[in-house]
Structures
1.
Amino acid sequence: MRERFTLDNEQIGELQSILSEDPEIRECLVLNTCNRLEIYGIASSKNGFEGNIRQKLCSSQGIDRSLFDQHSFWHTNLDVLQHALEVSAGLDSQMVGETEILGQMKEAYAAAKAAKSTGTVLNRLFEKSFQAAKSARTKTGITRGQVSIGNVAVDLASRIFGKLNKSRVLLLGSGEVGEKTAQALKSRGVRDIAVSSRTFENAHRLAHELNGSAIDFEDFLSQLHNYDVVIGSTAAPGSLLSKDAIRHAMRARPDRPLFLIDLALPRDIDPAVEELDNVYLYNLDDLSNIANENLAARKAEIEHARQILKGHAWNLWLQLRRRNLISHQE
Amino acid sequence: MLSELVMTDRTAFAIGAGIYAVAFLLGLGMLMLRKTYLRAVMFTLLTGGFLFQTLGLNLRGAEIKACPLGNSFEIAQFISWSIMMLFFVVGPAFRLRLLGFFTVGLAALLSGVSLLVPGWDQPYPAGIFGGNPWIELHAALAIFSYGVFAILALVSIMFLMQQHGLKKKQFGGVYQYLPSVQQLDLMAKRLLLTGVIVLTAALVFGAVFWINNLELVPIFKLTATCIVWFGYLIVVILRIQKKLVTRRHALASIILFALAIASLWPVESAREHHHTPAETNVPPPTDL
């Protein structure tokens, strides 16, 4: 259902124009992300307004109205304010507390403001929602801990190396999770990334995407000691890195830690390497467990954050009412 | 000017130790509540405790007209003061989170215990250093090096904790505030070199006195100090050769510090036996 409402920037602009041209709509803003399509608006009257909007959307996207009604929601008054604040704080996101949504809301707001679709009420709502999101994030743990595999790996690398600007990364294989993990490390400024895969073309392509280098699969063992982080993400049927291979590599770097990330199934790295001093091995299950624990911890903070946002929403509601900027049932 | 103060040296030491204890308990409470403490509050407490302890050392020094290193109480206070001073130098430079918490805990323990054991603050003959600046410098540097080794032991404990957390896949709690293992290892290496250089300098300055006063060379004390120095020197050499690194280096640093501290007591008791009323006018041996 969600895919049916995927809009590109041009379509969003068109939808925004259609809504703005409606004399019943005083202000409107379309928020479109990978996880939601929301329309915020102020109407002059409420008679039949909801039905009109729903019908317009269904017609433009060619969707059955009853199916749409089943999967959509409609808020009014204070509930709209509360919802907008919760969305901006990431409480409504799949990854609770994620901050990307705030940037997306800021972009949507800037676009609507530039198109002169917003007015006093929506301007105030969105500006307040950004402040409230910051407040909820500061006062609660909804953003604490990483919830994606890549970012958990980056966190672990930071606990081992501190700053990552001198760390070198070797990616074995061209698996998707491995690639994302390498990208997350790259975004934190690792010194360089090398890719090694049985198919050299794949390694070369991925190395190009990561702005790194490709090395022959036959050579990676002899160069292992040069790397601080090794990500195993191949489809090899057995272990690629044995305890002896790692022990041999560590002889050349006894005082520098080695971080091994095994994202492959079956495993690329022999679990016995954990016994070696200064070697830290994490597999996909370990990283997933950490991400899930962090996500659970964030979810436990939702109610606390919601209470904080309720206060902000109520204050904003009173302000708008006091200044007669909004009437009940709008 | 110091003599005009109403406060006695022990009162100043007690206030300093009290502030350290409050800072430590504040840090501990915040850690248990999984909250971060305000750095400004912690820094103010550490600075306040340090200033009172400095005042205490000054008052004691003015009273005995020498560096206050004449008994176990003074040595404990001086080590405690040294590690706090080192924290102010090392902590901000390396942004070592939690080091302040560990340091202030050790400082509070050393300072508090020395205040609570009356036997440690026994009077000793006036002019214990015999007005010899070399031996006074030797004593101060030697005790300061022990402060460096104390911080090294703390950093090593933090390293072992972080390594344990990473190996056992532990998150949250105290682990999230610890610096990275690589950063702690680098810090330990630098502290080890600093401590050995300072202790070597202390022995060289002491030797200036011993060469001219061979009959006063305290064999037992000299042996104990040289063993400690030699132990750290071996660790430095093995570290440079990369034969003693990370975990084993951390363990060696902790064990050596425990031995160094343990050696202070026999050294002290040997000195007490060595002093007799007839010797009060003779510059006595003051090696650790």
2.
Amino acid sequence: MRPGSVGKMQKFRDLCLFVAACIMLSPLCLRADDGALKKAVFLPQWVPQAQFAGYYTAYAKGIYRKHGIDLTIVPGGADRPVSRYLETGQATFITAWLSSALQMRDKGIRLVNIGQVVQRSALMLVAKKSSGIEKPRDLEGRKVGLWGGDFEIQPKAFFEREGLHVKPVRQSFSVNLFLRGGVDAASAMWYNEYHTIINTGINPEELTTFSFADLGLNFPEDGIYTLEETRRRDPELARAFVMASLEGWLYAFSHPKEAVDIVLKYAAEAKVPANRAHQNWMLARMKELIVPSKEEAAGLGSLKQSDYALVARELKELKLIRNIPDFREFYRGSATDAQK
Amino acid sequence: MLRNRGIVFKLIALVVTAGGFIFLCVFGYSYFFSRRTIEENINESARNLAQATVGRIEASLRSVQKIPLNDRYFVESTPLDPAALHDLLFNVLESNADICGAAIAFEPGKRQNVRGFAPYVYRSEWTIAFTELASERIDYTLADWYQIPRELSGPEWSEPYYGEGQDRTLKSTYSVPFYMTAKGQKRLAGVIAVDISLKRLQAIVSSVKVLQTGYAFLISQNGTVVTHPRSELIMNATIFGMAEEAGDTSLRELGRRMIKGESGLVPLGPGPLGSASLMYYAPIPSNNWSLAVVFPVAELMADVRRFNMIAFILAVAGLAALSGAVVIIAHSITRPLRTMAQAAGHIAEGNFDAPLPVSLSGDEVGVMTKAFEDMRISLKDYIERLTETTAAKQAIESELKVAREIQMSIIPKTFPSFPAGTGVDMHAWIEPARDVGGDFYDFFFLDRSRLCAIIADVSDKGVPASLFMAVTKTLIKAKAAPGKAPGDVLTTVNNELATGSETNMFVTVFFAVLDLKTGELLYANGGHNPPILIRSQGKPMPIEKTGNPVVGVIEGIEYGSKGLTLYPGDMLLLFTDGVTEAVNLRGELFGDERLLKELSAAADPSPSGRIEAVRQALARHSEGAPQADDITMLAVRYEGPLMEREG
């Protein structure tokens, strides 16, 4: 989305965001200069891209320092599993999907959610209309590309619910298998692969999409996690990190060009191929995922108990976790605290 | 606007407009014609250049494609022997410089229960190295080069990619699935893959140069830029990404056509692919990539543009020269015209000797100058003659004036002419239409008691009439004698005038003799208006006619006499037809009725009073209309019997 095409509703939403941000952040801002900066390490779960624009923007704009944190961002990637980094203390804060975090906790990593940034699931299935797929039922018997791990929880739950029998094909990070017709439907992140597909010359109207957020399987994605122990020892630090991160996101949404510049800079440093058009798209989608509607602007950064219950139940049913942790134990949202 | 301008301006305006229009037509035609010719040439050469380049790329790819297809036969037909496969792979690399890596990857089997088996041989610096792709970290079965031909059951060229680690060469992999038949069932056994460096392809495409800035580029099946003169676009940009960033939907459409394997020539506006240009694109059949050749329009059209610029400068110069020529020609026309206008001005002022410009040329201006000169001479001549004529006329007029004086002098003009007691009162008035009239009147005594009264009207005016009048008057006076009847007098006068008369002049005469003792009046009338008798008690009325014709035309006519008696106070008005036939501007005659009315209405009954009344009535009637005929009136009032003079 280009800055020029921002609609009235979005402007209004931006305004709401700022009002909300000011309410939440002002007490912290006042306290920011107290004492020395606290050191912390942050590891986002994947390589630098606009999916993490808010954190890189907050970092580049000095927002973490303003909130009293001397932060180091370790760029994520396949070779840096967040669970291990968090467990070993190599990272103070990480981002992870709610479903991943619940499984990590189930495996004994005592992490807590201190801020649920991405409210909506961006995971979707994409099919070419030319292959005759226009509704979920059309997937019956078709080859469907699925990523492994947490990316296949929603599709599997969905197929189960719909009673569909698909032929799963392991999907890599490229969408070429789908583009060449090797699978009839492919997994895609709305902010990433979907746009990649569009940018190989397939028009949106030529595609059928099944967005899990719209199919009753809205698994909140990127949330901020830290160890229970870290939070207990320094709740102020955890709170400050979340507040600064959210402020970074708000700044990125209102300065998309600058934010994309920042992301591209860190992507280049990490030698990750990236192009502006794609990052622009990704940032614009992140805004819709983080602030899905103006009603939810007030809930920025907080985890809804209903979403938590849904994810936990599905995981338990798929036997990916044994127990559902108590919501109050698992979620120690600073954003909600700040609002109180 | 143009109307009041000079000839020079009008001519220049016309010539420049017409010339400019003709030039624009010629210029436009030649521009579009040459442009079309060039465009046709571009189409032709673009197609040829693109096809030739596609042919080279295609040949290069096909030579690579043969290798795994050959190896497949070996792998499918030979029992699995790692050493043999290793040798095969080494051989492939050693004998094909284009190939920088080759692998035979086996489908991980349930029975083997291993991660897989995929020997891979590749070029490393100066040697050929070997590795096993199957490892804990990397699942090669998920790689595009393996998975796509596996799922599609056919050979496939991969999207371009960069080599891993230190190897940053751009590569593409051609992979072919191979099959084993077990228990009568053909089953996928693995994929043979060969990597090629795209350097050679890049070199082929980079060698395409069109003039200074024309270039070719290659996009992959996903629209990714594989080669481009701007190296930062390679692998970083897709044609669709560029279209999205530029908001250029037509570029996106073009990209879709390119990756669909279409070919064609399209004009490109200024945009992500550079300045305005023509682009020809054609597919590379082997890997469904698309080659585009970009022709810089500005450069191709540079010659046309230069030609047009020169043509334009020439046209402007030509029009300027033409204007100069027009100025000169126009001046050669207007200079004598201006001189002529000045000369005409002099002539208008009366200076006929003003010199006219001497024109030696035989053109229209020369002809006009000549005609003008002739006119000047004629005018001068005419004016001279007119002056002479006027002088002559003036002389005549002065003579006429003298004649009038003479004429007037022979008409009695003193009233009362006779002393009181003569027994008669008279008054007369004459107004000649021209300076010398043809009317006359006269009165005289024949003896002591008999008064003659004459009024006459000669048929013409002017000097001849005047002379005729004088003759008539003299003759009447000479022939009148006591005891001779007025009719006899007229008979004699008529004979005298008619005899040997060369002219066709004649005269109407009323001649009366009044005996003052008795009031008896005898009269003769030669074709004249009967006079009006105004009795002292009674209405005015004309006297009886005699029925005799005009005098001086036919010899030998006998004129009769008639008589009547006047009583004291009775008056007789003699007049010529100038009175009754006086015409006003509306063409109305004064008429007999009016005359009678005015006479009876006159306030003063004396002869002079009545004549004055008629005169004024005539003046009112005429309303300033010029007098057409002489007007003459003579009034005689009988006062009573003549007194004998004492002593």
